[in-house]
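Margin note: ligand = heme C.
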Amino acid sequence: MRIFRILYGMSLTFIVLCSAFGMLHARADENGVLIRYVGDETCEVCHSSASIGKQFQIWQRSPHARAYRDLGSTEAMTIARKMNIANPQKSPKCLSCHTTATGTHLPNLISTFRSKDGVQCESCHGPGEDYAHYSVMIDPVKSREAGLTIHPDEKTCKTCHNSSSPTFKGFDYQQALARISHPIPKKERMGHS
Ligand code: HEC
Ligand code: HEC
Ligand code: HEC
Ligand code: HEC
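Resulting structure:
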C-alpha cells in the first residue's frame, strides 16, 4: 500500500485509485501523508483471540459498536425531530459522534471499512493502515510511528462525550474507562508499555 503514498494529494486520479483498491476513508498525518481507516474486521483478525485479550469481542458488546444502529431507535428519532433532522442515520449532526471518521468520505466503493460499525477501534486508536501489521504491532515504537494511539486519554473521549451530545448528562472518565476496559492479559505481553 505504501506505493500509493507516492501518489498522495487529493487529485482525482488518486481518489479513483484509492477507490479501485477499496479504500473508503483517509486521513492525512502532520506530514500530509494519507493513512487510511481499515475498519474493525482488520483488528478482529488478531484481537479476537483469548491469549491477546479478546478486545474485539469486548468492543462488540460495548455501546460503541451499536452507536450507528442506535441512531435508528425511537429515542433517536424523537431527538432528531426536535432538531428538524429527518434521518439521524444520514445526518452529519449525529454521525459525527456515532460513527468513525465521519466527513472523510472518498467515493463510496468497495471497502473493508464500514461506517455502520459505529465508534470503532480506530476512533480512539487512530487509522490503522500503517500499524495493523504483525511486525509493526509487536513494536511500540514502530506502532507509534505508524500512527497508533497506544493510550487514548480523557481528551480523546471528550471529542464525543461533551455537551454537544443531545443526551449528555456529564462524563466521569474513570468510571467510563472501566466500562469499556479491554486490556492485554499481563502474562501475554511482549514488552509493550
Ligand atoms: C496481524 C495481527 C494484528 C492486527 C491486524 C492488529 N493488531 Fe494490534 N496488536 C497485535 C499484537 C501481536 C500486539 C502486541 C500485544 C503485546 O504487546 O503482547 C498488538 C497490540 C496492540 C495495541 C497495544 C499496543 C501497546 O503497545 O500496548 C493496540 C492499541 C492495538 N494493537 C490496536 C489495534 C487496532 C486498533 C487494530 C486494527 C486497526 C489492530 N491492533 C490490528 C496484533 C495485531
Ligand atoms: C458530540 C457528539 C454527539 C453528537 C453530535 C450526537 N451524539 Fe448521540 N451520543 C453521544 C454520546 C457520547 C452518547 C452516550 C452518552 C451521552 O448520552 O452523552 C450518545 C448517546 C445517544 C443516544 C442514546 C443511546 C442509547 O440508546 O443509549 C441516542 C438515542 C443518541 N445519542 C442520538 C443522537 C442523535 C439523534 C444525534 C443527532 C441529532 C446525536 N445523538 C448526536 C454523542 C453524540
Ligand atoms: C472508545 C475508545 C476505544 C475504542 C473504540 C477501542 N479502544 Fe482500545 N483502548 C482504549 C483505551 C482508553 C485504552 C487504554 C489505554 C491505556 O492503557 O492507557 C485501550 C487499550 C487497548 C489495548 C491495549 C491494552 C493494554 O493492556 O495495554 C489494545 C490491544 C486495544 N485497546 C485494542 C483495541 C481494539 C482491537 C479495538 C476495537 C476492536 C479497540 N481497542 C477499541 C480506547 C478504545
Ligand atoms: C467518536 C466518538 C466517541 C469517542 C471518541 C468515545 N465515545 Fe464513548 N460513546 C460514544 C457514543 C456515540 C456512545 C453512545 C452509543 C450508543 O449507546 O448508541 C458512547 C457511549 C459510551 C459509554 C456508555 C455510556 C452510557 O451512558 O451508556 C461509555 C462508558 C463510553 N462511551 C466510554 C468512552 C470512553 C472511556 C472513551 C474514551 C477512551 C470514549 N467513550 C470515546 C461516542 C464516543
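Confidence is low (pLDDT under 50) at residues 1-25.
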